[in-house]
Fold these 3 entries.
Entry 1:
Amino acid sequence: MAAPGPVSSTRLSLEPIGLVHSPLLSKAEAARQPAAATGATARIELYPGRNYEHALEDLEGWERIWVLFWFHLNDSWRPKVLPPRSASGRKGVFATRSPYRPNPLGLSAVRLERIDGLTLFIRDVDLVDGTPVLDIKPYVPYTDAYPDSATGWLHDEAEAVQRVRAGAAPPDPISAWSVHFDPRAAEQAAWIEARTGLPLRERITATLMLGPQPHAYRRIRREGGGYLLKVKEWRVRFARSQQDIRVLEVSSGYRPAEIGRSADHAEDPLAVHRDFRVAWK
C-alpha cells in the first residue's frame, strides 16, 4: 500500500452571502442552541446583485433551514473548552458546539417563516446581530434527524443525573432541574419584560434547567448561601433544593450611584433601572 501523501494546507476563500439582523447584540444575549431560543426572531438579508433571488426559488416551502455562518466575534480558538452541559470538566473542542474553533464555522437549524425578496424572516434564532451568513440549505427531516444516535460525553452526563437520584455526589445535571418562580420574582420579571421586551423568564428558565452549579458560560456564581445568575444587565437570585430551583428575586445589575449619575444625561439610559428600584423597594 502506498504511503499517504502530505495533508494539504491549501487556504480556502469564503465570501458571505448576506448578514443576520437580530436583536441579540452580544454573545452573552444569545441562546447556546436554537432549541433554547424558541420564539426568538431575526432576518437574513442576502446581498443584492448576485442572482440570489433565483437561488432562493423553491425554498419557501421548507419549514426549517440550515444556516451556515461565521462566528465573527471570535478571534481565537481553544483546543479544550468547558461546555455549559459539562459536569466533568473541559472537552475537546471538536466534541462540542463551542464557537472557539480553528475555523469559526457555525450551523443552526432555524424556522423559516417567509421570504420577501432577498430577506428571509426566521424564528428560533441563536445568532447575534451582524453574523455573516455563508450558506443556506433546507432541513430535510427524514435524512437530517437521527434521534437514536449515540451522544458521546452527553450520555455520561445523563448517567450522572441518575447517580444523583440514587444519592451519589451531585454533578451538574443536564435537564433534570425544575425551575419555579416565587411570586415576587415572577412579578419583577414580568415588569421588566413589559418595559424592555427582554424575555427574562424564558431566559432564566432555559439557563437554570441545565443546573445551578457555578459556570462561566452560564454566568452563574455562588453568593452567600445561594446563587446569582446574570442575564444581560439584570441579576437573578435563586436557591436550590434537591432537583428544584426557586427563583427568589430579580434586581438591577447597576449600582445606585451609577443609576443616579445616569439621570444627568438627557436620554437617561438607565431610566428603566431607576423606575424598577422605585417599584420594587
Note: The chain has a mean pLDDT of 83.
Entry 2:
Amino acid sequence: MRAQKVSFKYPKGEKKALNGLDFEVNDGEIFGFLGPSGAGKSTTLGILTGSITGWSGKVAVGGTNPEEADGDFYRNIGVCFESPRFHMKFTAAENLKLFGGLYGKKLRNMKELMDRVGLADDLNKKVEAYSKGMKTRLSLVRSLLHNPDLLFLDEPTTGLDPTLSRTVHNMIQEERDQGKTIFLTTHDMVTAGSLCDRVGFLSNGNLVLIDSPAALALRFGSREVRVESSIGSTRNFPMKGLAENEGFLTLLRSGVVETIHSREAGLDDIFRRVTGKNLT
C-alpha cells in the first residue's frame, strides 16, 4: 500500500484537508495514523478505500488505484468505520448476512466473531437498540467476516471500556499474525503504542513523522532511569555507566527503593513536542 504526494480539498473547504502525503505500508504490518480530530485521518482512510475521490497524487492499494476499484478490490479489503452505517431496523445477524452476501466468497463464523467482541447475546437484537460502542464492535465483525487481506480500521476502540479495548487489540494482533496488513487511525496513544508496528503523526493534513513507537520513545526520551524511594525522594541517573554508578548502587542497597523507571517519552508527549498540538 503506497501513497505519493496525496492532496485533497473538500469542495466547500477553505483549505486542503491533506497536503502532499507520502507513506508506504508494508505487507503484514499494523500502520497507525495518529492525530486529533480534524487532522485528516478519516479523509486518508476514505481515499485508500475508494469512498473519497477527486484527490491528487498517486495511491496504490494492493496494486490498485482506489478510484478504479472493482469487485475484486472490495472483496480483498475490510473496513471498520468510526461511525458505521447499518440497516437500523434489521438485527445484527440480518445485517451481517446481507453484507456478507455481497462478497461472493466463503465467510467466517458469524457467531464466533460476535462472541469474541462480547455481542453473542445481541446477535438477534435490532441495531437501532445498539449503543455506539456496540456498533463499533459490530462494524469490526463486519470488516472481518469475509476474511480480507487488508484491513482499514477507523478508531476501532471508540466508545469501548478497557476490557473490550484489550479484546479488540488482541483480535487485531491476531489478524496481523495471520499475515494481514492493517491500516488504522486513532487519537488514542495507548492503542497506537500497543498495536502499531509503525505510526505516522498527522497534523492539519500534514504527515510530519513516521517511525516505530519504540524508536520514537527512545529518540525523544531521556537516557535516564528515575528512582523513587519510600522516604519521598526521587533521583534520576544516566543509563550510561549505570552499573558502576556509586550513587545508584548505594540507593539500591539502602532498602528504600520503591520504583525504578526508564524515561522513554510517551507518544502523546512526542506528538505535542513535534506538532505543538494535543492528541485530544
Note: Residues 222-263 form one domain.
Entry 3:
Amino acid sequence: MRSKSIFFYKVCLLFLSIGMALMGVGVLIVQAKGWEQSVASPGEGKSPNAPGTITGTVTYTGTITGTHMVWVGAFTSTQGVPPAFSVMRDGPGPYSLADVAEGIYYIMAGMDADDSGGPPDPSIDPIGLYPNNPVTVTDSTLITGVDIALYDPTPPPTDTGSILGWISYTGQISPTHHIIVFVTRWGDQAPTYFSVIPGAGSYTITNVAAYTYTVGAFMDLDDDMGPPQPDEPFGWYDPLGDGAPDLVVVDEGVQVMGIDIILADPLHYIYMPRVSRADAP
C-alpha cells in the first residue's frame, strides 16, 4: 500500500503544492509590487555569459473586464521567494523574459484584477502556472511555448466541513521539519486538499466538501515542499492499525475531529550474509 501511494503522490504533490500555494495556503508568496521588467535583482544575477530567454503567451478566460496589468515571473523555488526574473505587460498576450541566468525555474503569471499594484490576492486575482514546470535555462537558451492560462479564482464551496487532528512523531529525526497533511477523495489518486504545519502537532483543514476521504501525512525532510521521498516519515489515518488508510466521512457543516496520524520512520534493512560452518575434511 505504501509503495503504491508514494508513486502517485510523488507525481501529483509537487504540482498540488504549487497550485494550493497560489490559492492562498501560504507556501508561495508572490511579491508583485516593485518588480522591474525582465530584470533580476542584485544577487539573483544576470548571466555573465549569454543569458537565456523564455517566451510564451498569457491567456485569460473569465468575467473580469477592462485592461489590467499582467505579470510573469520565473521563480527559483516554491517557498515564498520573489521571482528571480519578471516582466509586466498591459493585459494578456505574448511575453518575453529576457536575460534569464542559467538555472531551473517555475514560471507563473497573474493579473492585477483590482489594480492595487500590491502583492497578488488569490481570492481576487487570476493566477496560473506553466503546466510543464519547471523549465531549465542553459547558456544562450531560447525556450518558446511557455504558455500560461489564467482563470478567475474558484470561490470556496459553501456546503463544506472541516477535518481536525493531531500528527505525532516519535522517530529518530531531530529537529523535526514541516509536515504536509493531505486529504484525498475516496477513489481518486490526486490529493484534493492539504495543509502544512511546522512540525508535529495539531492541524485543521477547512472548506472540505461533503464526501468520503482518506487522510495521510509525511515529514518534509528537505523542507522543499516537494513530493514525499522514500526516506521521509509517513503515515495514514489508520485507527485499525492494519497499514491501510481508513475512511473519513465529511458532512456539510460538520467538524470531523480526532483524525490523528502517527508518522513512522521508514524501515531500513541491513544485509547480513549467512555464515555456515564448514567442517574440516
Note: The domain at 28-151 is CATH 2.60.40 (Immunoglobulin-like).
